[in-house]
Amino acid sequence: ATSRVQNPALRQRLMSAREAAELIPAGANVGMSGFTGAGYPKLIPQALAARISAENAAGRPFRIGLWTGASTAPELDGALARVNGVEMRLPYQSDPTSRKLINAGQMEYTDIHLSHVAQYVWFGFLGKLDVAVIEVAGILPDGRLVPSTSVGNNKTWLEQADKIILEVNSLQNPGLEGMHDIYYGTQLPPKRVPIPLVQVGDHIGEPYLHCDLSKVIAVVETHQPDRNSAFAEPDAVSQAIAGHLIEFLQHEVKLGRLGPDLLPLQSGVGNIANAVLAGLDQGPFEHLTAYTEVLQDGMLQMLKSGKLAYASATALSLSPAAAELFEREIAFFRQRIVLRPQEISNHPEVIRRLGLIAMNSMIEADIYGNVNSTHVMGSSIMNGIGGSGDFARNAYMSIFMTPSTAKGGAISCIVPMVSHVDHTEHDVQIIVTEQGLADLRGLSPKERAKLVIEKCAHPDYRPALRDYVRRAAEGAPGLHTPHLLDEAFSWHTRYLREGHM
Ligand code: 0RQ
Binding residues for CoA, per the UniProt record (predicted)? Predict the structure, then answer.
């Protein structure tokens, strides 16, 4: 087969992953590609982990700052975390070993809205980016790069890093070429201009990433699949959540607040999100569109069935079966999918303009509508805020979903006060559990509390929540958002003490 490294100068830089990893210095800030298990470098992080392990064994401490698009995979986050090679991680991760290190206080983690990352680097808020390690699907003769299955922050990493290392993955489908829209019109304040994107499918940039060839210090050829982890079949709880949501959307259409094709959908990742998409695929709405971060199985299926006309995202996140479908029918999907930098897929200006229906999962909500997406019992990180804040604050309608209980019923996901706040009561409009849906739009805190308890809380926890609200209304110094501050976290402390709320 002919090499995908078509630029002669870059062919001179071909080397093994081990040799490339030697070029990354200890203490470097490294910007890697990768977004929800797609398009991350596969060999260099593992080679770097081996080097770090050897250096540490020889008594020479070696750690890096690791920046990505979002979560990656065991070959990247997992490999580097297992050798304790990451001093500081940003902006989002979901790796079990990293999570353990972060919660043990051994890895610093800066959890940033995904739309903020690129601009923070341009502003100089995060320090210097030393090396970019980017997976691409090919290199053109003139040195432009064919992006892979995710775009993430790659444009910014390539522009901002002093040095660039490329992993050219020949397993990525050549049909990816032309599916990307890389926008080069972003300016810095005070020179910013409007982003000219007014329809989900608009192409406002170019299909390729630019690359300053003089900065490229290594090119490594790989032939490795993306992570592609399977989804669970929708269970009764996620199906019930999907059912409530679809009934609600039908009601909004009836009231004339949404058209029969709704508005562009944003959907978080995970099993509930996938169940909602499966529900929409069977549901009454036609000619739907999506302006989202991650295109997962459910959306691929909706494109296939014709329910979904077009989808914009920054990354694919597919199960092995869906990845196979994508491969087989890439000619069909490339007409209907565009992948953009995450600063555009998650851009507040564009989200507000398009008027998205944002649907994200959460850890817990409180009776007044504050949402915690990231922390367990106030102090342990689960994953991170990801794009949920970008979408929630700026959407036409912001929906948060969770089962009403966790850990077999020992935890109520509806609590008096959330133990950590990611989305405030001002950014949260609709809360859904398998019990029902609370539409909080236009309601005062006291009205919201009543609705959240009666519609969303598990029946086992409703009496205690009602009791809290009643006593707060008697004992709180102010009656706008009545709380008993001595008691507001007692559900969490009871769980930590006794193993149930
Ligand atoms: O833990 O596996 O140890 O039992 O949290 O919960 O129910 O499997 O739900 O996988 O959809 O994840 C919010 C974490 C939900 C995810 C969150 C425990 C529960 C389980 C996972 P175990 P489920 P999901 C676009 C949008 C933030 C980023 C985001 C997330 C584990 O959706 O990371 O929205 N969101 N991005 O047992 C203690 C509670 C709990 C609880 C659940 N109340 N207390 N533990 N759990 N509720 C995508 C991107 O930005 C990339």
Answer: 363, 383, 387, 407
C-alpha distances in Å from residue 283, one per residue of 114, 275, 367? 31, 12, 30
ipTM of the modeled complex:
0.98
Give the number of residues written for the chain.
501
How many Å apart are CA 501 and CA 497, to the nearest integer?
9
Say if CB 68 and CB 153 are below 8 A apart: yes
3-state secondary structure 41-88: CCCHHHHHHHHHHHHHHCCCCCCEEEECCCCCCHHHHHHHHHCCCEEE
Catalytic residue among 135, 167, 293, 434: 293
* Atom in ligand 1 nearest the alpha carbon of residue 362: 13
In degrees, rounded to 5, the angle at the alpha carbon of residue 365 between the alpha carbons of residues 360 and 371 is 60
Task: Give yes or no for residue 317 CB within 6 A of ligand 1.
Answer: no
Distance CA 15, CA 18 (A): 8
Strands 29-32 and 64-67: parallel
Q: How far is CA 319 from CA 132, 198, 233, in A?
A: 27, 31, 12
CA of 474 relative to ligand 1 center, distance in Å: 35
Residue 363 alpha carbon to ligand 1 centre in Å: 5
Tell the residue nearest (CA) to atom 50 of ligand 1: 386
Reported as a single tens digit per residue, the pLDDT across 330-377 is: 999 999 999 999 999 999 999 999 999 999 999 999 999 999 999 999
From the CA of 271, how far away is ligand 1's center (Å)?
10
Atom 11 in ligand 1: which residue has the minimum CA distance? 270
Q: Assess whether 343 carries a catalytic annotation.
A: no
- In this prediction the pTM is 0.97
